[in-house]
Amino acid sequence: MKRFFATAFLTFCAGSYAATQHEAHTHGLAELNVAYDAQQLIIELRSPAANLIGFEHEPQNIDQQVEVENLIRSIQAPENYFVVPPSCALNSIDFSSPYTGADDFGRDRPEEEGAHHDEHEHHEEHHEEREEHGHHEHEEEHEGEHGSENHKDIVVSYEWDCADKNLSAIGVNLFRVYPGIEKIDAQWIVSGKQGAKVLTKSSSNLQF
């Protein structure tokens, strides 16, 4: 019962995000979902990969691989991102990344393997089109239709167990850590109250 409220909220937020935000996939924009109930705090961050590492394709050189590795290390230290009450003790981190070897810190994600397989088949279809219609025509189609399918999002959620019965505020340091983030759509349910706010570099804290 302790987890039901927060889990249900984040499930709703994930569905809402997929329906309204994912298709747009706006670079510079991220989403933050916060739930606090029964002294349990959950914060979920959703962002295009480009906001965090500057690209969305698979790493193509050592520098880009280092960017992915640095991101994974940074994600494991939520104090880099958020200021939560001192009474809150980190309980778990759940991380979903489109990059090889980074999903959920080593947990298997067969559904994403299937998605990768579909993308591979789609790539082979385009390769055949290049042979049939020519390189230039294929490149235009790749950018116009297939390009939108290459968008990659990173999702990370944190769970804390807290001693305080009430949560009054959370500090958000994401703009300082990731200059690629220009705006954050935040929504929350805290102790039965709900609200939303657009965070910017000049107004980055959440007051409940």
UniProtKB/TrEMBL annotation:
InterPro entries: ZrgA-like. Residues 1-18 form the signal peptide. It comes from the Bacteria. The keyword Signal applies. Residues 101-149 are annotated as: Disordered. Keywords: Signal. Residues 104-149 have a biased composition (Basic and acidic residues). Pfam families: ZrgA (PF10986). This is DUF2796 domain-containing protein.
